[in-house]
Amino acid sequence: MLVRFSIGGECLFETELDCLPAQGAEIIFVAASTGRGIPAGSLVAGRVSIGAHPIFDFSAEPPRVILSLDQAQVMPPPGSGGEPAS
User: Fold this and answer.
1) What per-residue confidence (pLDDT) applies to 39?
2) DSSP code at position 49
3) What is the DSSP letter of 84?
4) Residue ranges with strand state E in 1-86
5) What does the radius of gyration of the chain's CA atoms come to, in whole angstroms?
Protein backbone atom coordinates (compact mmCIF):
# COMPACT_ATOMS: atom_id res chain seq x y z
CA MET A 1 0.00 0.00 0.00
CA LEU A 2 1.18 3.52 -0.73
CA VAL A 3 1.85 5.40 2.51
CA ARG A 4 2.21 9.18 2.62
CA PHE A 5 3.75 11.04 5.54
CA SER A 6 2.55 14.63 5.92
CA ILE A 7 2.83 17.68 8.13
CA GLY A 8 -0.06 20.13 8.07
CA GLY A 9 -1.67 18.23 5.20
CA GLU A 10 1.36 18.52 2.91
CA CYS A 11 3.04 15.31 1.77
CA LEU A 12 6.74 15.20 2.62
CA PHE A 13 7.43 11.59 1.64
CA GLU A 14 5.65 8.59 0.19
CA THR A 15 6.61 4.96 -0.11
CA GLU A 16 5.18 1.47 -0.54
CA LEU A 17 4.87 -0.45 2.74
CA ASP A 18 3.40 -3.82 3.68
CA CYS A 19 2.46 -2.57 7.15
CA LEU A 20 1.95 0.80 8.82
CA PRO A 21 4.17 2.28 11.50
CA ALA A 22 2.37 2.55 14.82
CA GLN A 23 1.16 5.87 16.17
CA GLY A 24 4.05 7.36 18.12
CA ALA A 25 6.66 5.49 16.03
CA GLU A 26 9.78 7.44 15.14
CA ILE A 27 10.63 7.50 11.43
CA ILE A 28 13.47 8.96 9.33
CA PHE A 29 13.27 9.74 5.60
CA VAL A 30 14.60 11.99 2.85
CA ALA A 31 12.03 14.71 2.05
CA ALA A 32 10.48 15.23 -1.36
CA SER A 33 10.19 18.79 -2.67
CA THR A 34 7.71 20.80 -0.59
CA GLY A 35 6.37 24.30 -0.25
CA ARG A 36 6.97 24.39 3.52
CA GLY A 37 10.54 25.63 3.20
CA ILE A 38 11.97 22.13 3.57
CA PRO A 39 14.49 21.62 0.75
CA ALA A 40 14.17 18.42 -1.27
CA GLY A 41 16.77 15.94 -0.06
CA SER A 42 16.60 17.10 3.56
CA LEU A 43 16.76 14.38 6.17
CA VAL A 44 13.59 14.45 8.30
CA ALA A 45 13.19 12.68 11.62
CA GLY A 46 9.66 12.67 12.98
CA ARG A 47 7.10 10.88 15.05
CA VAL A 48 3.82 9.50 13.69
CA SER A 49 1.12 11.62 15.34
CA ILE A 50 -0.81 10.10 18.21
CA GLY A 51 -3.51 12.80 17.99
CA ALA A 52 -4.35 12.32 14.28
CA HIS A 53 -5.82 9.06 13.02
CA PRO A 54 -4.57 7.54 9.75
CA ILE A 55 -6.60 8.39 6.65
CA PHE A 56 -7.33 5.40 4.40
CA ASP A 57 -8.04 6.64 0.86
CA PHE A 58 -9.51 3.77 -1.17
CA SER A 59 -10.76 6.13 -3.90
CA ALA A 60 -7.17 6.57 -5.13
CA GLU A 61 -5.41 4.11 -7.39
CA PRO A 62 -3.43 2.58 -5.85
CA PRO A 63 -5.14 2.95 -2.45
CA ARG A 64 -3.12 5.01 0.02
CA VAL A 65 -2.81 5.75 3.70
CA ILE A 66 -1.95 9.25 4.90
CA LEU A 67 -0.16 9.55 8.24
CA SER A 68 0.45 12.85 10.01
CA LEU A 69 3.76 13.61 11.68
CA ASP A 70 4.55 15.78 14.64
CA GLN A 71 7.77 16.61 16.44
CA ALA A 72 9.67 16.59 13.12
CA GLN A 73 13.29 17.69 12.99
CA VAL A 74 14.74 18.70 9.62
CA MET A 75 18.41 18.60 8.68
CA PRO A 76 19.49 20.28 5.40
CA PRO A 77 20.66 18.20 2.45
CA PRO A 78 24.36 17.27 2.56
CA GLY A 79 26.57 19.94 1.01
CA SER A 80 23.87 22.64 1.07
CA GLY A 81 25.65 24.71 3.73
CA GLY A 82 22.23 25.66 5.17
CA GLU A 83 21.04 25.63 8.71
CA PRO A 84 18.41 23.09 9.79
CA ALA A 85 14.88 24.21 8.88
CA SER A 86 12.30 24.56 11.63
Assistant:
1) 79
2) -
3) P
4) 2-7, 10-16, 26-30, 43-48, 55-57, 64-75
5) 13
